[in-house]
Amino acid sequence: MAIQRKRVTTDPGHAIASAPVGRLRRLHRSELPEDTIELARFLIGKVLVRDHRGNRTSGRIVETEAYPVGDAAGHAFIGMTAANQSLFLAKGHAYVYLIYGSSYMCNVAAERRGIGAGVLLRALEPLQGMSVMQRRRGTTRLRELAKGPGRLAAAMAIDRLCDGIDLCAAGPLWLGADDERRAVPLARSVRIGLTKEVDRLLRFYERGNAYVSGPRDLRR
């Protein structure tokens, strides 16, 4: 599936060119690193694809946070429950939960089956279906469509029905790779909005990308 580069001008005051995509293919589970922190790094530059009600939306992952084994800030720290059991699936499955009663968070399960750990997807650079994302989000500003985990889920129509989906298999939500895409410059910082394990440098993002969320003064 080849996607052509095109210029979009719906962001007031800005002309933003969507990033070019070469040949997009589904990621194989065997490609995903076993280690949670390495998976958080690995996912930067990969593509999240959503097929929903006849519409395809996709975006390049530009920001992640790792929640490794034993991390007190992670949902798996308390052990497996009915709500977090998707975190204990084999690496590459989706774990989706609701926060503050209004926003969904999309995570990728890490490690081996039975070991709870995950990577939070924090921001996307939109690639396909921008007009659909705009309707879902109620804004025309491209840089705001999926900038932050709650916005990301809303733009991609991700909710609890996506919890447990195998992101490495054919389905409505999956991870892709563009083998023609060059490696991106990575940066890291502390994670955002936590009260536990606050000093760990487990947030990864594409340096200089305009779609990355978060304050600029985070410790790096």
Overall description:
The chain is mainly β. It has a single domain (about 20-205), classed as Roll (3-methyladenine DNA Glycosylase, Chain A). Helix content is about 10%, strand content about 30%. It contains three helices and twelve strands, in the order ββββαβββββααβββ. It has helices spanning about 35-40, 130-135, 150-155, and strands at about 1-5, 5-10, 15, 20-25, 45-50, 55-65, 95-100, 105-110, 120-130, 175-180, 185-190, 205. The strands form two sheets. Strands 1, 4, 5, 6, 7, 8, 9, 10, 11 and 12 form a ten-stranded antiparallel beta sheet that branches. Strands 2-3 form a two-stranded antiparallel ribbon. It is globular, with a radius of gyration of 16 Å.
Short structural summary:
The chain is mainly beta and 220 residues long. It starts with a strand and ends in a 14-residue tail after the last strand.
